[in-house]
């Protein structure tokens, strides 16, 4: 290397450093002080004592309700914190030493609780083949199962007809009807367009693998040359661990991928040495509908393998509400591959209101591609199985699609295809209704053409946990016995002195509240106790839930219908009213121009007339606190770390090693 070359290299390094510093400044990163010594938690000794006691079941119930209470307290604390416009952070909570992790199917969001914004990176890993000659494997991204069934095409056409009907029936803001534009009109133009070479050299490079790294993470993984011997894995798929029968699809392999990606992000991007993680705590955001076994495995990985000293597991929806400064809202998270809807009230996510739909932004992208192909898409070699093409298509969707009924007619657009080892090519294309039709498929998911897949998931009840002798089943059956005996006691003492009623009026309210929670518990209790019994004996809620299961599971419910269903599953009219007044949309999948008005209009039109009279204002919030909605849940996790009411929720490494899964149930701020 000559002197000049060396200087050039140095200059490049300095530039990189400067860029890194700038990025950190933008994220509001503060340098940590020396790691503190974490004192042995006082909760732990309490838990130890409680373990020694035999009345564990009752205690667990009490602990769990304490955790739920703390959720309500948190939401209250949070509200006042937001009123003060600054989150109150007690000194003893070293938020600099808390890492908040929000794993998504497409994006990992990770950062210190003190950072203003998290780091975001594609949640993907490329692993080098162990032996030469191994077949290359890549997890699908835009491609998915159920698209090539014989009925898929017809279903897609039917869905599109519904979309067109809806577009036509809604008037523009000036009262006029929209003139539909046929794909044929755009096609005639697009077919005659010839792409232009802008530059023979794109200056884009495949990731350098000459030093044969064992793995590559994020953008580097996405840009690994397909001729290199690397497999590509997305460890989260539709919000859950991406377990499958292909290469790298075992639970162990997926957990190893998560550990490698997160460790890399912590070490290389947050600049925390892995050996220092014993000084750090972690807040892990999990989906609203979660698989208990998977959460346990991930918690184990974080505490035992990575070595965090303590963890809080919290639901994305509740964190999203926190991140927006709302204590109650119907939270709609439209992600890349899944959409979840759930009603959060006073910091608690109502279990019956949780729905997860197996579609998201990537399905809109694929639908847009299909519509553009129909309209003569000029980049004819584009394939959704190709990773870089998929990235380009996502980008085109984000740039061109909208939900604004007022934009109509044909418009001309252009885009550049810039791939490694290829020239930069400029494409021009004319598009009309495709840009509105694709996002509208979220409301008419038949247009995605997915057949034979489970499209709607509800929260499954716990089937019992061998590691947790006092699991939900045990609690419910003991609770049931207690309830029965207390009911017979109540019947005996039904003639109370008249002064008693006035005295207990506030208690009465509390009991109704508790009663609402019990409805949630009551299902599995009823399920367990009434299995084989006359169905008429089952509580009506259970029946409603069961019928919802059979009704929805194979069917893709549209986004607006899912929201209405979720709200309808709330126990009281007062809660439903609150939810209609505050529909919070987070995630990136609905980040289209006009989405707020569009969704608001659909909810208003579809909500039951009785509520239309009751609810003053249906408010759809798509940009809470002017924040990027993709980061709202992460932000909520960071806010949570600051609240002193959160402190009792920490699950410490030692407790986990001694008591395992039962600690999750006892510490979770939600009904585990
Ligand atoms: N400006 C935009 N307009 C439209 N869509 C967008 C925009 N920005 C991002 N998206 C889409 O948002 C999706 C990613 O959203 P998000 O980051 O919430 O997903 P995720 O959390 O990784 O996935 P999931 O929640 O499904 O597990 C992608 O489909 C992306 O194309
Ligand atoms: Mg998400």
TrEMBL record:
GO terms for cellular component: chromosome; nucleus. The keyword Transferase does not apply. Residues 1-28 have a biased composition (Basic and acidic residues). It comes from the Eukaryota. The keyword DNA repair applies. Its main location: nucleus. It is found in: Chromosome; Nucleus. Residues 1-43, 478-519 are annotated as: Disordered. One of its GO terms (biological process) is cell division. SUPFAM superfamilies: Actin-like ATPase domain. GO terms for molecular function: ATP binding. Pfam families: Actin. InterPro entries: Actin (IPR004000), ATPase_NBD (IPR043129). Residues 478-487 have a biased composition (Low complexity). Keywords: ATP-binding, Cell cycle, Cell division, Chromosome, DNA damage, DNA recombination, DNA repair, Mitosis, Nucleotide-binding, Nucleus, Transcription, Transcription regulation. Component of the chromatin remodeling INO80 complex; specifically part of a complex module associated with the DBINO domain of INO80. Exists as monomers and dimers, but the dimer is most probably the biologically relevant form required for stable interactions with histones that exploits the twofold symmetry of the nucleosome core. Belongs to the actin family. ARP8 subfamily. Proposed core component of the chromatin remodeling INO80 complex which is involved in transcriptional regulation, DNA replication and probably DNA repair. Required for the recruitment of INO80 (and probably the INO80 complex) to sites of DNA damage Strongly prefer nucleosomes and H3-H4 tetramers over H2A-H2B dimers, suggesting it may act as a nucleosome recognition module within the complex. Plays an important role in the functional organization of mitotic chromosomes. Exhibits low basal ATPase activity, and unable to polymerize. PANTHER family: ACTIN. This is Actin-related protein 8. It comes from Bagarius yarrelli.
